[in-house]
Write a structure and sequence with these properties.
By secondary structure, the chain is α/β, with parallel strands linked by helices. It has a single domain, classed as Carbon-nitrogen hydrolase (Nitrilase/N-carbamoyl-D-aminoacid amidohydrolase). Helix 5 links the parallel strand 10 and strand 11.
Length: about 290
Amino acid sequence: MTELVVGAVQMRSGVTPEHNIAVMKDLVRQAASRGARYVQTPEMTGALQRDRAGLRQILRTEADDPVLRAASELAGELGIYLHIGSTAIDAGGGMTANRAVVFGPDAAVIGRYDKIHMFDVDLDNGESWRESAVYRPGETARTIDLNGARLGLGICYDIRFPHLFRDLALAGAEILTAPAAFTRQTGEAHWHVLQRARAIENGAFVISAAQSGVHEDGRETYGHSLIVDPWGRVIAEAMDGEPGVIVASLALDEVKAARAKIPNLKNARSYRLDSDMETARGAHVA
């Protein structure tokens, strides 16, 4: 495969999976009608629900999840690769998995990934998040094959951990992904630069479908779904903050070209860290 038309779906998921499924299906159909053979939805496509009791009421196992059932049927109907950026899945033991699932054109699952890095932060505007209190972190990085194009899977906060995306690129990923529900505060500060940095560092395309706007559960997300090329140029962006679709054609030969121009993946060397931090701290003790 030398060229792949891709789409990213921007959503404003509420707390009711059935409503979100209807919106997802409509937007995925729009992307496919514009020629997209791979379509990605945002993190927490099925529901954005910060109330733990409310989340537990709608949780299902992967086999019984209505979002994934609808996605499988849609991928088969449209004959596309459909990447559910993530949805909440009952992981047992009172814990939840923040899980991405990719379906092939035959409607079968071709890959899944549980978010590794938990968003446990206190922001300047008073927002406080403790994903680790609800979600069980994943332990395995994942790449999958899209009929000749290699896809590396990440989710939202993962984008702040360059080593994960470097490992995915070294494993052959030409397209890196970080579907997200970035907060407005962190998005305004860092969203674009993080996406572009991961693309430049790895000479890879980056596709990140995003949640956007003020949600039913009260949170506000940044939006600006992006598709970035291996040279760090934004080639498609959702600008208006509303639910919608962006589409771009990826010339996969650009990955090889970028990595030939800046061969940092080949030039990386192992090294030893010799730190004098303890000595420096001791020198300042009166």
